[in-house]
Each structure stands twice: as structure tokens, then as C-alpha cells.
Design brief:
The protein is mostly helical and 188 residues long. The longest helix has 28 residues. It folds into 2 domains: 49 residues; 137 residues, no CATH class. Helix content is 81%, strand content 0%.
């Protein structure tokens, strides 16, 4: 990324970092830019289906659950970017289609919640988990998922369809990545 190189060179020139820090700064800046771009795309797609506020809530909830549940990780940034857009679009389209079909939305939520509950955390070839880490991430995933399902149930009882959709999008995205991660790990 030329922007990252320019920023890094400027930091070096101004004495903010030294030569030993270049690789770490480049890595951090690349990840920061990728995260911000991902968030902006997520918000733009979400705004089309719901609103910026709901899209941000979905992104934050997805981030918290995904961080602990793990799942499929693409091999390159480009693959990750394209897969992320595809999964987000599919999740929103599915939830948009099921908005007035509470039974389908609820069924989808239950099935993917069970998948997450049973299989998460899924590690990747870049981040292998030991037994202790697996136990910690499994517990966190189940707590977060449980909280989301309590919110989903309260929203369903209170006829808050958009909040049900928000939770369903999160569960759909993370559940899909857990499924893909599980399949991918069995093929290796």
C-alpha cells in the first residue's frame, strides 16, 4: 500500500519511529486501514438494508462474536475482502427476505446459533488455539451468543422486527464463517 509506505516514511523522517519499528508500523497501519475500509463498506451495505445505526450495531455485535468464535479466514486480503462483502450481502438479503416471515427468521437464528454453540471456537492455520485458549474462547462465545439470544427473544416478544433482524444478521454471518471454518479444517 503506497499510503502506508508514505506514512511510515514520514514517521521515520520525523523521528516518530526508528528502523526497527517499520515492519510493526506497516503491519498495524495495513490492518487499521483494512478494518476502517471494511467498516465503511459494512455500514454502506447496512444503510441500504436498514440504517447506519443498525449497521453499526450489527458490525459491533458481529465483531465481538466473531473475535471469539473464529471460523474461516481467507488466505489473502483480497479474498477476505471479497468473501466479507459476499457474506454480508447474503446475510442482509436473507434477513430482508425473512423480515416478515418470523418463523423462517427464528429457525435460521436457532440453527446457526446451535452451529456456533457446538463448534466454536474454530481456529485457523494462522492462529492455532491450544486447549486453554479453546476453553476460554468457547466460554466467551457461549456467553456472548447467550446474551444475543436473550436480546433476540425479548425483541421477538416485543415485536421489534428490526432488532430480530440485526441479531439474525450477526448469527448468520458468524455461523456461516464457523461452518466454512469447520469444513475447511476437516479438509486439511
Amino acid at each position: 500500500m503506497k499510503v502506508v509506505e508514505k506514512i511510515t516514511q514520514r514517521f521515520l523522517k520525523e523521528g516518530i519511529i526508528n528502523d526497527d519499528d517499520v515492519d510493526v508500523v506497516v503491519y498495524g497501519l495495513e490492518n487499521l486501514i483494512a478494518t476502517v475500509c471494511g467498516l465503511l463498506i459494512f455500514l454502506a451495505i447496512g444503510h441500504f438494508f436498514v440504517s447506519f445505526i443498525h449497521a453499526f450495531v450489527i458490525w459491533l455485535a458481529c465483531f465481538m462474536l466473531r473475535k471469539n468464535a473464529g471460523g474461516y479466514h481467507a488466505d489473502t486480503r483480497k479474498e477476505c475482502f471479497l468473501l466479507s462483502i459476499l457474506i454480508i450481502l447474503l446475510a442482509y438479503l436473507l434477513c430482508e427476505y425473512t423480515r416478515d416471515k418470523q418463523g423462517i427468521m427464528c429457525g435460521m437464528n436457532i440453527i446457526l446459533s446451535v452451529v456456533i454453540f457446538l463448534y466454536a471456537p474454530i481456529d485457523s492455520k494462522n492462529k492455532k488455539l491450544d486447549k486453554e485458549e479453546r476453553d476460554v474462547y468457547r466460554k466467551r462465545t457461549r456467553i456472548i451468543l447467550g446474551l444475543y439470544e436473550i436480546i433476540y427473544l425479548a425483541a421477538m416478544l416485543g415485536e421489534r422486527t428490526v432488532l430480530c433482524m440485526d441479531i439474525s444478521v450477526v448469527v448468520c454471518i458468524v455461523g456461516s464463517l464457523v461452518c466454512l471454518g469447520k469444513i475447511n479444517s476437516q479438509e486439511e
